[in-house]
Amino acid sequence: MTGEQQTREILAELLREFHGRGWVSGTGGGICGPADDGGLLLAPTGVLKERVRPGDFFVVDPEDGHVIRPADDPALRPSECNAIFGLTHRQRDAWSVVHSHALTAVLAADLVPRLTDHLAIRGLEMLKGIPGVGNQDTHLVPVIRNTPRESELVEQLTAVFDDPRFATASAVLVRDHGAYIWGDGVWDAKRHTEVYHFLFEATVARRGRQLEG
Amino acid sequence: MTGEQQTREILAELLREFHGRGWVSGTGGGICGPADDGGLLLAPTGVLKERVRPGDFFVVDPEDGHVIRPADDPALRPSECNAIFGLTHRQRDAWSVVHSHALTAVLAADLVPRLTDHLAIRGLEMLKGIPGVGNQDTHLVPVIRNTPRESELVEQLTAVFDDPRFATASAVLVRDHGAYIWGDGVWDAKRHTEVYHFLFEATVARRGRQLEG
Amino acid sequence: MTGEQQTREILAELLREFHGRGWVSGTGGGICGPADDGGLLLAPTGVLKERVRPGDFFVVDPEDGHVIRPADDPALRPSECNAIFGLTHRQRDAWSVVHSHALTAVLAADLVPRLTDHLAIRGLEMLKGIPGVGNQDTHLVPVIRNTPRESELVEQLTAVFDDPRFATASAVLVRDHGAYIWGDGVWDAKRHTEVYHFLFEATVARRGRQLEG
Amino acid sequence: MTGEQQTREILAELLREFHGRGWVSGTGGGICGPADDGGLLLAPTGVLKERVRPGDFFVVDPEDGHVIRPADDPALRPSECNAIFGLTHRQRDAWSVVHSHALTAVLAADLVPRLTDHLAIRGLEMLKGIPGVGNQDTHLVPVIRNTPRESELVEQLTAVFDDPRFATASAVLVRDHGAYIWGDGVWDAKRHTEVYHFLFEATVARRGRQLEG
Fold first, then answer.
1. Is B150 a catalytic residue?
2. Distance between CA atoms of D180 and D155, rounded to whole angstroms?
3. Which one of the listed residues A125, A150, A152, A194 is annotated catalytic?
4. Is the pTM of this model over 0.90?
5. Do A125 and D178 touch (CB under 8 A)?
6. Across-strand partners of D69?
7. Among residues D82, D96, D79, D2, which one has the least CA distance to residue D43?
8. Which long-range contacts (CB under 8 A, 24 or more apart) does A164-167 make?
9. What are the residue ranges of helices labelled H in A76-185?
10. Cα D68 from chain centre
11. Is ipTM strictly over 0.90?
């Protein structure tokens, strides 16, 4: 089994796991990982993500998004996340990016006033799960506005990657939509995905409680 | 394996998945899909839906609901959803309809004042999962009153299907009861079922938060 | 496979399913079903319920609770639910009783003022899942006080079974503790268990919302 | 299969189960159990806990934490819980300790004012799941402050173990972090882990409701 073949199987398995947790659903959400030839394995668009098979991934060029190798099934088209995944790879050296449609990500972004561009998370041991962050730090997660099409998020994301306040962020929240979460490799992206969903859920639960009290 | 045999197996598998998520439970809820001969495969009534087997489905005529082919087990009777599924097929060209008993559907209908006949959903990327709807649109889901027997919902449903405000709706909420959700085929109905449950849950969570704030 | 052997396997499977849903946990909760010889199959006490095997059940006499046939493992002792399950059998002709430790049952009983002896449930289609109850009925579920030992609940339960207001109830809530839920046979008890947990959860969610509003 | 080999398999299985329930996630959380030679089996640090295999455990000396036998994979390092697990073993004769990162543990500690050092739990049948505690007792769970590194919790834990108010506690809550929960053996620790998570969740739900009311 080649490295890429194993990665394809792990990506399909992670999509099933994330679907079971409500992080991808109804064809929403996505994932990418490293291919053998410097390309990115990219899930197809418009399909039930928990039923993606190893042969359903495209290999795309992370520099410009063009398709290097298509999916086995000619009816499939590459995910709309293509431009965002490539940008994240180039700006953060990330070989794996998860796009979450979790409700908890939507509710976490709801906590942030419209004119504020980040969610501040503090006072949680799980912050240690993000590289370069300790449990005494205040961690800023950038928050951007949603756009009619996914590819139109690129402009805001470019500004986020240039902003030194977000140097340690391994995630971006998109209002009314979800989050992009990344890591050096597939297992790092998986770990960060769990950590950020915990941080979002904890922040929503604590702020909700404060509002009530 | 014929197309119908595969559909029977998928319908049984989806009932197990929906049961695991609390969308059908305690014999409540149901599903239909396309049979080979222009009929509708219909789950039986009064049974635990997660234990329905491929041979337990009836084939009924979507024009008048009469049984074309019975279930293998002569003790079974066709679901009370029969009249509603047929109406939805004739009015919306839907070959698959899901009847959900999810608590989140009941709570979403609770948000709608008694004299209002719809739930307005806006500001969510997941709206894109409904054909003809974008993430900047306000999507109206019709809400009808519950009746002592399921077949008595037909009159209200007929009015809903005639109402141009609900042209893009692929779901109807029934107060104190649940929802009917449909699609062209089985996978479309499955996708819409996930999307609408997400939309209901998100709307309940956001409105609850507003009430508290 | 004899009828009893199959029942033992189903009871063990249901305990695993109920554990997965949080209805039995930490050795709490239990179940009984019909044995071949007019006895009741009774789970052992003090064991992890999701790991009970078919040979771990006792057969007890539903009239007086004495052990007719022990579990295969001589270290096991019969559940403390013995007296309650027998009483329920004699008063309601129930051959299967589930004892739930679900948090939702505790929170549902919390809604009932201390001097009131029942929870009134109305306005839910799922009420139809209880024999003799329609979706327009107000269904009264008796609520009793917890006692230091489980067997001491018998006195209050006897009064409940004699009370004509509770003629259609297939469940009793025990404050700070959980619920007993029964049916003619194992599948009836399973269906009622799902239905009542839905009714409890819906009532808790609706009342919580009213308190906030 | 030796006793230790079986324990290694059970520990790996429990980590998968706990991950599925959100009690360990994102490499956070951990577990230990008895080795054949008086040592403690200790999970590795910085790995996805649901993917730990039987050969991944270290055997450490519970007196001073030194590694008696390493994990099969030389790239692994022993968990940071090492010092805490050893201390708990020596002070409470516990051969198995679970370290939970559950959100419900964080929220339960949030209920305790900053200058108070315990959570009082009462009025729940599930209290019987803790040795020496009845359902009429008020059970005190010690609460300690989080520290930058896990090993720095030892000083506060030593004080907790010396405090006669906490003689029956089989758990300690760590603010902003989670909980340590122990038992004589692996199955006792598993049972207590379920019981305490139920007690935390019930207490959070009940207090939240009081705040709203």
1. no
2. 15
3. A125
4. yes
5. yes
6. D59
7. D79
8. A165/A118, A165/A140, A166/A118, A166/A140, A166/A141, A166/A142, A167/A132
9. 82-92, 103-110, 154-162
10. 22
11. yes
